[in-house]
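REQUEST
  id: r-88c1
  op: predict_structure
  target: ATP-binding cassette domain-containing protein
  payload:
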Amino acid sequence: MIELVNIKKGFGEKIILPDVSAVMETGKVNLIIGSSGSGKTVMMKCMVGLMPVDQGKVLYDGQDFTNMSDHEKKEIRQQIGMLFQGSALFDSMTVEENVMFPLHMFGKGTLRDKKKRVMECLERVQLKDAAKKFPAEISGGMKKRVGIARAIVLNPKYLFCDEPNSGLDPQTSLLIDKLIKELTLEYNITTVINTHDMNTVMESGDHIVYMYQGRKQWEGSNKDIIFSKDEKLNDFIFASDFLRDAKEMRQLEMFQESNWRDKLKKG
Ligand SMILES: Nc1ncnc2c1ncn2[C@@H]1O[C@H](COP(=O)(O)OP(=O)(O)OP(=O)(O)O)[C@@H](O)[C@H]1O
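RESPONSE
  id: r-88c1
  status: 200
  body:
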């Protein structure tokens, strides 16, 4: 579990996150959503320590990351996997070498053990056959999967994904979402995804934090969204007439489920 406690972050006079508190839950896909400029990336960078916070703290399973020594921070960082926007693979390295990279940096054990672990991860993302290829020789979806294999190679407790679906077609996006969700459950990872993708929200949003102008405007699950009365959230998620209609249809379907009265009361 990752907790943000009263995080404040600004640049000069400009305050981006005035006071954010949120919990990223273990074994769940936690999504940070919000329009452009709402502070999602700044929040994620504060969480992983790429940006120092002005006030407040970030706790990793109860440990105060914000006030740790560099040595202690390094230990937490080794438990963090990151999937960057655009995959950020090294072009001059093969798929296998890209996935090996974190093991060379931080991993213990023999070269043989490391190679075995790399192949396990490539197998998990169904890319064993592409091990000797270079990034230029594979598709965007495959690159994302290499990025995922690299992010999980050190068995992370925490996984951060920045816009994992950017540049992918809807079908490939769904496959990537499914893979991230499966890995999250399989290894009980605290996964945090920064996304604009509404498919991801509706399919993978176990826990969603909606940011509006640097503040946490709403939080809940993909099921709660259907019944949310928060106008800003509704304008953001159900932006088109088509999606508003789809929401109403889904509400009708869910009304027929047993606990609909509770959902309505909750809002
Ligand atoms: N290093 C920086 N220096 C100054 N301002 C910054 C810096 N990084 C971000 N900002 C500002 O913080 C605000 C929030 O930016 P952020 O990148 O977090 O938005 P976002 O919600 O991730 O947007 P997008 O969805 O477009 O990626 C923006 O106004 C941005 O200009």
